[in-house]
Amino acid sequence: MVAVVMQVLDTTIANVALPHMRASLGASQDEINWVLTSYIVASAIATPLTGWFSDRIGRRTLLLGAVVGFTVASLLCGIAANLTQMVLYRVIQGVCGAMLVPLAQATMMDINPREKLGQSMAIFGAGIMFGPIIGPTLGGWLTETFNWRAVFLVNLPVGIIAFVMLFALMPNTVIKIRKFDFFGFGMLAVAVASLQMLLDRGQGLDWFESPEIWLYLLLSISGLWVFVIHCFTSSNPFIDMAMFKDRNFVTGLVLIFVTGITLFSGLALLPPMLQNLMGFPVIETGFLMGPRGIGTMLSMVIVGRLVGKYDPRILIIAGTLLMGYSLYMMTQFTVVMSTTPIVVSGLLQGFGMGFVFVPLNSLAFATISSKYRVEATSMFSLVRNVGQGVGISLVTTVLAQMQVINYGELAERLTLDSGPLRDFIAAGGGLQNVAGALSGMMTQQAAMLAFLDDFQLMMIVTFLSLPIVFLLRSPKNKAPPTAEERAHAMGE
């Protein structure tokens, strides 16, 4: 979990440091975004490789190597002299970091008996949720207190601790030699990388007005189509499609995709709203985001004990309803309000996240054979990350478009027949004197309405996911694992 927190934290901690990095590295606004894009694309491509490498060299060796690689890459990012070096080191960091989460999740499932699976997934979920929530705050504090290089160098002591603990405690696993399906991996890499590039660059290129975005779309669809056909027809496919026969696993993939959309889009929306519209400084914004993390931690402590006693599907439904209600509260935000609604809605949303994430992780892998565990957790991480990318791109696009639409609608309704407007103009010394102030107020209100439109969209997506929960099966009647499966899982 130390390794997981280090990797997940790094997905968001660098975001707030981008303006400082841009000035230091002499990059343009478009160029500096490659610091984020390179990491995301490299991580997406490397995630499906985890299962094959784990079988080929052993889970212990791979996890230790990934920790070393991620830590060294973090050091190199912290001392990078130009943008080219930074992007190269971020690619290495993304490749190594992609393997940490699925390996850690598979290991925690293997070393815990089924009755303690809920508690172990609660610990795992706490790490997954902790990083994105604390990342922007920690990154802002490190950047302001020291400089942008500190957001990478902070990984060094954490990486060393993770390596020492894993080296001392990590059990060995069985090594299974299997051929590498270069063609299958190549097609999947093309599909995933193209999709990530489409999501990351779409808004900046005005989406399908750009030939580049059409190219990404065609490559993504073509790569995925060829990959699926190849996996069904090849004698040695890159991913064994048999694991997709498990209904719980497939349903879990759909639900974690939706959760990725709603969870990370909210984390992407709140900081700019709090800072740009409400005028909160970076540190105070971090404190206002804190209750979401507190709610998540509290719920995971509780739900880890409830998973074994109650039907996990009921817990997922309860968490989804809480998240939906918190998003409804966020649709009532205004530019001038106290911090109480922000804190309460964040606390409820975090509480709901824990009730969704922990039982969903338990149910998704409850009925799947242990021999697919690393590949399955890799696919689970990949789908969650794709959902995250889709969610952020979706809310960013809606925010930009609705801001323009809302401004036009406000301007249409602003007439001189309005008594308050006449009073405002008179107090300001005439229409010419207050025109700039009026435009600024309308821009602010249009932006706030656009944020509310996004919150409403996320609320609808959340509630629409509820029927999918009923496709999950309870694992209570599943036969215990065979001796062969237990030996494969534990490496004994």
CATH-scheme architecture of the largest domain: Up-down Bundle
State the shape: globular
**Strand runs, count:** 0
Main sheet properties: none
Percentage of β-strand residues: under 5%
**Residue-averaged pLDDT, rounded?**
81
Give structural notes.
- Its main location: membrane.
- This protein is an all-alpha fold and 492 residues long.
- The protein has 3 domains: 1-180, Growth Hormone, Chain: A; 181-237; 241-492, Growth Hormone, Chain: A (Up-down Bundle), CATH 1.20.1250.20.
- It has helices at 2-13, 18-25, 29-32, 34-46, 50-57, 59-78, 83-111, 117-145, 150-153, 155-169, 182-201, 211-233, 247-277, 282-306, 312-330, 340-364, 373-413, 419-428, 431-464, 466-469, 483-490.
- The protein starts with a helix and ends with a helix.
- Residues 477-492 have low confidence and may be disordered.
Topology:
Layout: H1 2-13, H2 18-25, H3 29-32, H4 34-46, H5 50-57, H6 59-78, H7 83-111, H8 117-145, H9 150-153, H10 155-169, H11 182-201, H12 211-233, H13 247-277, H14 282-306, H15 312-330, H16 340-364, H17 373-413, H18 419-428, H19 431-464, H20 466-469, H21 483-490
GO molecular function: transmembrane transporter activity
Keywords: Cell membrane, Membrane, Transmembrane, Transmembrane helix, Transport
Domain Major facilitator superfamily (MFS) profile: 1-477
